[in-house]
Amino acid sequence: MNVNELNTSKTGLLFFDMLNVYYHGASEETKKKMKPVVDNAVRLLNAARKSGIPIFYAMANHRKDGNSRSITVTDTDMRLRPWPDGVCNPSIHGATEGSWEQKVIAEIEPKAEDYLIPKYRWSTFHQTYFDLALRSRGIDTIILSGGAVDVGVASTTYAARDLDYNVIIVRDACSNSHDDSMAAFMDTVFPRMARVRTTDQVLGMFRKQI
Amino acid sequence: MNVNELNTSKTGLLFFDMLNVYYHGASEETKKKMKPVVDNAVRLLNAARKSGIPIFYAMANHRKDGNSRSITVTDTDMRLRPWPDGVCNPSIHGATEGSWEQKVIAEIEPKAEDYLIPKYRWSTFHQTYFDLALRSRGIDTIILSGGAVDVGVASTTYAARDLDYNVIIVRDACSNSHDDSMAAFMDTVFPRMARVRTTDQVLGMFRKQI
Amino acid sequence: MNVNELNTSKTGLLFFDMLNVYYHGASEETKKKMKPVVDNAVRLLNAARKSGIPIFYAMANHRKDGNSRSITVTDTDMRLRPWPDGVCNPSIHGATEGSWEQKVIAEIEPKAEDYLIPKYRWSTFHQTYFDLALRSRGIDTIILSGGAVDVGVASTTYAARDLDYNVIIVRDACSNSHDDSMAAFMDTVFPRMARVRTTDQVLGMFRKQI
Amino acid sequence: MNVNELNTSKTGLLFFDMLNVYYHGASEETKKKMKPVVDNAVRLLNAARKSGIPIFYAMANHRKDGNSRSITVTDTDMRLRPWPDGVCNPSIHGATEGSWEQKVIAEIEPKAEDYLIPKYRWSTFHQTYFDLALRSRGIDTIILSGGAVDVGVASTTYAARDLDYNVIIVRDACSNSHDDSMAAFMDTVFPRMARVRTTDQVLGMFRKQI
Questions:
Q1: DSSP-derived 3-state class of residue D51
Q2: Residue of D nearest to B118 (CA)
Q3: Does the beta-carbon distance from C130 to A127 stay under 8 Å?
Q4: For residue D117, what is the DSSP state?
Q5: Residues C123 and D162: beta-carbon distance below 8 Å
């Protein structure tokens, strides 16, 4: 297959964790950094709706009581800070089910016919119905926008690759807290397991179809 | 839990793709670069056997006819070279079932009681019996040595994390072709989802148990 | 392990498809037949709440547009009627997301702390978060009430068995449309892969704990 | 889709646990009962090879040390005998890896290009590469022969159904120890989730293709 081709009738658009907690509820600095990413997500959404491409929203979803959360031992917390006295003690995640924090940002608001994929772990595929939703519509290619790149986007892409899905990572519609891992994924890791493109390039692929 | 503790009775040691094709069958330059990694793998193996820790070998396993291989569209081949004329055309993998290339290197030769995990995709968990083998022995912690870090080691670690396994990445017993992604994983990505340690540190953790 | 023992701290109670569509929305004949099953489900629920056993509700969950539904070829429809002219043509399922039909019956109404498991296929484990919810609470035993026995209860029990969960089928808290398969499962199939008990027997097992 | 049609280019033939331990190593009575089932399996195999249909062999595969085996609590052993004094104590399975018992019967001997699927649980899909092997060849329909019907054949069929595979159960090429569950599956359970046909009928479907 040619790497510049796209069959939009077999393509889905996935927004990963584009939730209030990570944007409208974040610091001014984060918001400023995220703004162009959100703008590109909006452009992708509008173009996808016009092309009849199904839209999926992966959403972190956690219980208020903290049950069901991941409890593995890590060297640091999610901000790369080592645990005080070496005692691994993850806090309960902010995106609890039904809260404002857990809602998709209004800029790319889901419609009734879109797919909401609540999830309890990092990968969009992990114990969710994402795979069956894709397969029963004949989708074999996933366009991916969101963040964090080195957490859920990477986890989803590794899983998608092993499940034989083609993935297109939209570089300027993705966000990450760490520049070194963002660059390593986009330049060195993803090109061997997926395609890495800009929003402009993806919109160009859509237009070729029409 | 304290990040310096290890319960060896709940721990398994996983060697990822330590196969002839990637070492004895590789270029002199690669062999030279891999040598200290293999030496550390041997040290881990000996210490694990002494401590009664079960040993698992993840092994790429492919059909000669190329069926069952991954067929997703990527920007480049596995050496980061763009496809000629943009035509994605992956070759058949060298580690075909039963070949010399696919065998575990003699330095860390498996014994009859060890676990061989043939696999067709990157993650050691993907459509293999690794998870049930671990759970039915009560193992919740995986010590990981091998390569490539940004391919199968990363893929396995993301999957392990979502399945609630604790992972200890043995930095100097792992290999990778690309320095930027190696550094990003070890410094920025893995510490938030696992523990990153040297061979010496892991051997120290084993000794504390005795 | 002794087959009459139960560790309630490692036990969960699962109600399978106890939804309006299958009871309050069903024919008078079905309602009459189901009434004692519902009564026993209520007794199980009350006893489980008293013992601090977590409650899970598996709920058929379907899209109004029929996407995501199963589309396999079968000899008959769900009532065992061959397809007219041999053309397999499954209708869209009544339990669409958010509808009255899809809600759990009021008799065993879920509380905020209970687990709702929406599902698109028969098995409660298939592409749902049921497994991770169980494991992260240390649950290894599932008490199962609901119907249909030869559809979702069987499917869930086969999957649970392969995932190493102990299952206790509560015979008089389960329903089925067909007497031959109900008897075969309870007498011949389930005893080799699970335990089959009455509501009274299960309540007795709970009491032994206190 | 019409229930009498079959696209052989999207079809695979699966033999489930047609192993020495269950036939040549069994009692004379079992052998006699199994003989026509094996004869039909041979007819299916020959016809499938002629039609270019890929062949898969699901094979129970167990460790000599008994690790990795299922350890769930059941009311009875596999012969429906209650455990002495209620102590559930499953023996180690006879089909240990590499043994004569675990080999496929010579009557339907695998060729190099066929697919061997070793498995540790009942379902052919459970933590095996069966699903990826099917999908990467574009197979959506599984013809199933083997036994036991109420153990692995049923378990595989429930899983296949949830994964959106069409299944054709070849009634007279399947075996079971219990007549009540055999009849219930073939008459009442399988027709709603699959197609149930005789060997003659399946061979007729193959011929229509040519």
A1: helix
A2: D129
A3: yes
A4: E
A5: yes
End-to-end CA distance of chain D: 19
pLDDT in tens, A113-163: 999 999 999 999 999 999 999 999 999 999 999 999 999 999 999 999 999
Nearest CB to B127 within list D70, D131, D137: D131
Question: Is residue D43 within 8 Å of residue D51, measured between CB atoms?
Answer: no
Least Cα distance to B145 among B177, B173, B109, B118 occurs for: B173
Q: Phi then psi for C201, rounded to 5 degrees?
A: -65, -40
The C-alpha angle with vertex C99 and arms to C89 and C65, in degrees rounded to 5, equals 40
Say which of D132, D136, D164 has its CB closest to residue A135.
Answer: D164
- Taking contacts as CB-CB distances below 8 angstroms, the residues of chain A near D127 are none
Residue C2 burial (C-beta neighbours within 10 Å; 0-12, 13-18, 19+): exposed
Identify the pLDDT of residue C208: 87
pLDDT digits (tens, 9 = 90+) for A160-178: 999 999 999 999 999 999 9
Gap from A129 CA to chain C (nearest CA, Å): 5
Residue B125's φ and ψ, nearest 5 degrees, are -90, -15
* A27 token code pair: 């610091």
Contact B139, B164 (CB under 8 A): no
Smallest Cα distance from C184 to chain D, Å: 5
pTM for the complete prediction? 0.97
Cα–Cα distance between C92 and C96 in angstroms, integer? 9
Alpha-carbon distance of B94 to B91, in angstroms, equals 9
Give the one of B132, B135, B164 whose C-beta lies nearest to C136's C-beta.
Answer: B164
Q: Which residues of C touch D78 (CB under 8 A)?
A: 192
Which of C9, C119, C132 should one mutate to test binding to chain A, selecting the residue with the greatest count of A CBs within 10 A?
C132
Rounded to whole angstroms, the Cα distance separating A15 from D36 reads 55
- Per-residue pLDDT tens digits for D159-199: 999 999 999 999 999 999 999 999 999 999 999 999 999 99
**Residues of chain A in Cβ contact (below 8 Å) with chain D:** 132, 135-136, 164
Could you identify the residue written with the tokens 């070890």? B186
